[in-house]
Structures are given as C-alpha cells and as structure tokens.
C-alpha cells in the first residue's frame, strides 16, 4: 500500500529524529506529502500568592511556541517540507496528533517511541494513545534504549 499523506510527530528528541528520518524515507519512496507536527504542552502560569516569588511569573507558553516554530521551520526547510505542511500546536500531544491527522486527512502517522523495557512500557503513553485513537495507520519508530 502506498501512502499519499503522512504526518510525523516530531519532538526534537532522538526518538523523534528517528521517526522523522523514517517518515521522510517512506514519503520519498511513496511520493507522499509529508506533514510535520510539533506539540507544545501548555505550561500554566505559576501562582505565587501563597509562597515565594517565582522567577517564572510570566506565561512562557508564547515563547515556547515561537521557539518551536523556529526550530521546526529549520528542520522542515532542510527536508523540503513547505510551510503549509508544518504544524506547531498547543495542547496535549496525544490529542493534537490525532486531531491534526484527521484535519489534514493523512493515511499514516509516524511517531517515535522511547526504548523502554517491559510489557507495560512497550509503547510510550503518547504513541500508545495515538495507536488506539487514530483513524489511520500508525507507524511507531523505536528510539534508542535509555
């Protein structure tokens, strides 16, 4: 089966890098459009009303999103992924990967997993959730053992 649209979830980690390499390889082989997604998890502002003043009293979320956009653009440009196929979203990676995949209409999601051992850790919680909730195929690419 040749895939036409793929989404790779990229978190700038070693396992994310392996997933990106595999997705790029598959997209080239199948002549598929490759979309790349990074999800910034929301960091609530710190409430210091009952304790010491935190040096992080500002909401860092906007800064994290802008940084992620810049880093993702750099990676995507090297791979020739156009701007309209790059996504930086704010929220839960588990939910956003599935949502964006449905919105874009991809037929394959590629996610990296951490090389942990034991039956309960066969897939990371994000990868496991994506496998269980996606409406398309999911390829889990194992990262190196930790």
Describe it.
The protein has 146 residues and is of the alpha/beta class. It has a single domain (17-43, 53-145), classed as 3-Layer(aba) Sandwich (Rossmann fold). It is built from four helices and five strands, in the order E-H-E-H-E-H-E-H-E. A five-stranded parallel beta sheet has the order 3-2-1-4-5, sandwiched between helices. It is globular, with a radius of gyration of 17 Å. The model is unreliable at 117-123 (pLDDT under 50).
What is the secondary structure topology, with strand pairs?
Elements (H helix, E strand, L loop, with lengths): L4 E5 L4 H17 L2 E8 L20 H19 L6 E5 L2 H12 L3 E8 L9 H9 L3 E9 L1
Parallel strand pairs: 1-2, 1-4, 2-3, 4-5
Overall structural class, as computed from helix and strand content, comes to alpha/beta
Give the ordered list of helices and strands: EHEHEHEHE
User: How would you describe the shape?
Assistant: globular
Radius of gyration: 17 Å
Please, what is the average pLDDT?
86
Major sheet strand order: 3-2-1-4-5
CATH-assigned homologous superfamily: HUPs
Number of extended strands: 5
How far do the termini sit from each other?
Answer: 33 Å
Q: Using the 3D structure, state the CATH architecture.
A: 3-Layer(aba) Sandwich
């Amino acid at each position: 089966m040749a895939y036409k649209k793929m989404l790779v979830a990229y978190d700038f980690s070693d396992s994310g890098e392996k997933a990106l390499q595999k997705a790029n390889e598959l997209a080239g082989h199948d002549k598929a459009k490759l979309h790349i997604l990074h999800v910034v998890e929301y960091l609530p502002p710190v409430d210091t009303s009952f304790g010491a003043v935190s040096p992080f009293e500002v909401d860092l979320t906007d800064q994290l999103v802008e940084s992620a956009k810049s880093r993702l653009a750099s990676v995507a440009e090297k791979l020739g992924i156009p701007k309209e196929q790059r996504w930086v979203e704010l929220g839960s990676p588990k939910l956003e990967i599935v949502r964006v995949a449905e919105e874009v209409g991809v037929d394959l999601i590629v996610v990296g997993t951490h090389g942990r051992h034991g039956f309960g850790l066969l897939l990371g919680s994000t990868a496991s959730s994506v496998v269980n909730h996606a409406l398309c195929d999911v390829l889990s690419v194992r990262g190196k053992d930790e």
